[in-house]
Amino acid sequence: MSDHPITPQVVAEHGLSPEEYERVLHAMGREPNLTELGIFSVMWSEHCSYKSSRIHLKKLPTTGPVVICGPGENAGVVDIGDGQAAIFKMESHNHPSYIEPYQGAATGVGGILRDVFTMGARPVANLNALRFGRPDHPKMRHLIAGVVHGIGGYGNCVGVPTVGGEVNFHAAYDGNILVNAMTVGVAETDKIFYSAASGVGNPIVYVGSKTGRDGIHGATMASADFTEESEEKRPTVQVGDPFTEKLLIEACLELMASDAIVAIQDMGAAGLTSSSVEMASKGGVGIELDMNAVPCRETGMTPYEMMLSESQERMLMVLKPGREAEAEAIFRKWELDFAVIGHVTDTGHMVLKFNGETVCDIPLAPLADDAPCYDRPWVRTAPPAPAGNIVPSDDIAADLVTLMGSPDVASRRWIWEQYDHMVGADTVQRPGGDAAVVRVHGTRKGLAVTTDCTPRYCYADPFEGGKQAIAETWRNLTAVGATPLAATDCMNFGNPQRPEIMGQFVGCIEGMAEACSALGYPIVSGNVSLYNETKNDDGSGSAILPTPAIGGVGLLADYEKSATIAFKAPGESVFIVGHSYRHLGQSLWLREVRGLDGRDAGPPPPVDLAAEKANGDFVRALIQDGIATAVHDIADGGAAVALAEMALAGRIGAEIVAVAEAGDPTALLFGEDQARYIVTTTDPAALAARAEAAGVSAIAIGATGGDALRFDLKATGQIAAVALDDLRTAHEAFFPRLMG
After folding, report:
1. I need a surface site. Which of 86, 185, 395, 583 has the fewest CB within 10 A?
2. What share of the chain is helix, strand, coil (3-state, %, to 5)?
3. Is residue 184 part of a domain?
4. Domains in the chain, number
5. What is each CA distance from 402 to 223, 593, 641, 678, 726, in whole angstroms?
6. Residue 695 domain-assigned (yes or no)
7. What long-range pairs does 715-724 form, CB within 8 A, spacing at least 24?
8. Residue 149: CA atoms inside 13 Å, Cβ hemisphere, count?
9. CATH code, domain with 151
10. pLDDT in tens, 361-376
11. Cα separation of 166 and 504, whole Å?
12. Is residue 556 within 8 Å of 448, Cβ to Cβ?
């Protein structure tokens, strides 16, 4: 394998441009062999090096009072008090999930779990953010079924509850679905493990499953557009085993209870290559590996294959000298492979030995420092013109039923009932609310967790869309009563070599950065997934909508004080908190009822970050002081959909009386103005007084009760009413009908 000639075609097949290959020659001082070329290929891939995004990611706020560790490690770490930390991250597994939906989604869950428990945390919650194409697309049922089954199959078996997430549908994802997985774990602050190798002579050990030929070039595949030949890439999709992952979690946590580990890294994208290179580079040391010692499950594997395999459920560790036998006993007890495969050196090189010969000798500093970093050309997305003459609703009740049964609003019960969201017995709030809540085991504390993004906003105006994605997760956490701590991101975009796509990325990053700063809500970990496009016959690309998915984590001092969306009893007062500007641009109503999509639907609602902060802090205080009985943030579908969701959750209707004293009620009910919440209370006077004192808009709009939602449309003199049974039928029907 080492004497394989390196031709321009071989270089191109490894995803390196001629200019990048010149950098390899400069770094090596000679021509690389095939194994060395493969290592440069994966380490300099978009997926591993962030070469198109690094300069812009630096704009994001990543520090704060509770941040223990920001981006750069396996996951982000925040302090949750009492000597405990929450450790979390979100990652993409988009390309593999399109090619092989079950294993692509399953191994996405497995990989993000390893990122979290690698740092010493016991995983306590999984979430996901999924984007599919048109429901009637001929391939979509197969993709939905496979992805959902893969997420459930892995998470359920490994014993970590899947507690929340989101699902969107749009034609832009027809040829490139998105599967983003998030894991949250809890660790002791004095038992957090990092990946920087140190200690010349220290043993390097391989643990977990054996290495196979699955997943070779997975990172490279994830750094390219899709073509008609994508089905041929099925062998680059990894195969997961959740039962082995469960054993690996327990074995790692058992060894972590000792002081034997110097550094630890999971083998994710680019497998043994990325884990060993990152550990050595971060520690400023060298590394020597004996490839004959790597546990393999297939015969005749070459060093090239071993280094680039992305077989799952594997970890790499640096141990203190003399602790090998102790560690091996633990991993053998858990029926896992354990092998000493190398040691730390002071050479600054990665050296691989095989059959007594040196088959790779790469200087690590240039491999890391000379990695390409591109400031790609970009053009800012021009804000769309306002949507033209919008015909108001002629039937508010019928439009509400339409929205409640639409793909982006309909009940996700069919999905989340396939997930075990109660395993571990610490789930306080299940899927279906604004955020899930998981008890910190053995304490009164609760972690609130959520994922969110509105891609149609980001497509119309990336800057406002980026702001909104951050603000919405902050609002979701606030709506259950949690103090938002920090966020993770998964930046899903098209081909960065197209200036308009790069402009979407830059706009979203800048909007996110402004919102993070204003809300005191830093980004502590994340992932970038580019080249989410399908090549058309004419060579052009059909890109996904810009999708900066955000995962948020917040803290409740007492999980029993968390708020839910369900109306609690008849006769409670209903308030809308936050100013209603009647902005219909980019609303779901405009798309689902009037058929206006994309830039034809006008600009998205602007995000007033000062109002977000003031209104959110006000609502959180209402929850903590027991004044709010139910809370729901207003998002897709506007106030009418939020009210319907609260009514269905509580099986109690409402009479909404103060709707549009003047003017058309359509925008008031279906507009998606930001920074707003629906709040119910048994003490309206107290709520109103506190709102006045805080300078927050809080308007009483009606009361709970009955078995229908009734809107007294003041301006028209009409009553729009829809029975809860009719809303429920529409809301629950979409997925069972779609999936048969």
Report:
1. 395
2. 35, 25, 35
3. yes
4. 2
5. 39, 8, 10, 21, 11
6. yes
7. 715/660, 715/661, 715/662, 715/663, 715/664, 715/665, 716/665, 720/395, 720/396, 720/397, 720/400, 721/397, 722/397, 722/400, 722/401, 724/647, 724/648, 724/651, 724/653
8. 11
9. 3.90.650.10
10. 999 998 888 889 999 9
11. 22
12. yes
Q: Which of 350, 369, 388 is the last residue of a domain?
A: 369
Name the residues annotated as catalytic. 47, 93
The confidence score (pLDDT) of residue 213 equals: 87
**Token output for 666:** 């359509």
Contact 500, 376 (CB under 8 A): no
| DSSP at 293 | G
The pLDDT value given to residue 230: 44
- Give the tokens for residue 465: 């869309």
The residues with which 491 forms a beta bridge, in sequence order, are: 528, 548
Q: Report CA Rg, the chain.
A: 26
Q: Token pair for residue 496?
A: 């960065």
| Out of 91-100, 147-156, 211-220, least confident range | 211-220
Calculated CA dihedral for residues 8, 9, 11, 15, nearest 10 degrees: 130
In the chain, what's the furthest Cα-to-Cα distance?
A: 89
Q: Which of 173, 52, 95, 228 is nearest to 542 (CA)?
A: 173
**Phi-psi map region of 621: left, alpha, beta (phi>0 left; psi -120 to 50 alpha):** alpha
Cα–Cα distance measured from residue 431 to residue 645, given in angstroms and rounded to the nearest whole number: 13
Residue range 4-21, pLDDT digits in tens: 889 999 999 999 999 999
What tokens does 235 get?
A: 């062998």
Q: Give CB contacts under 8 A, 24+ apart, made by 591-594.
A: 591/456, 592/402, 592/403, 592/406, 593/393, 593/399, 593/402, 593/403, 594/390, 594/391
Residue 44 belongs to some domain of the structure: no
Tell me the residue type at 212. G
Residue whose pair of structure tokens reads 């299940």 in the numeric block: 430
Does residue 568 belong to any structural domain of this protein? yes
Phi, psi of 324 (to 5 degrees): -60, -45
- Name the least confident of 214-218, 502-506, 519-523: 214-218
User: Which residues constitute the domain of residue 315?
Assistant: 61-369
| Domain's final residue, options 369, 391, 415 | 369
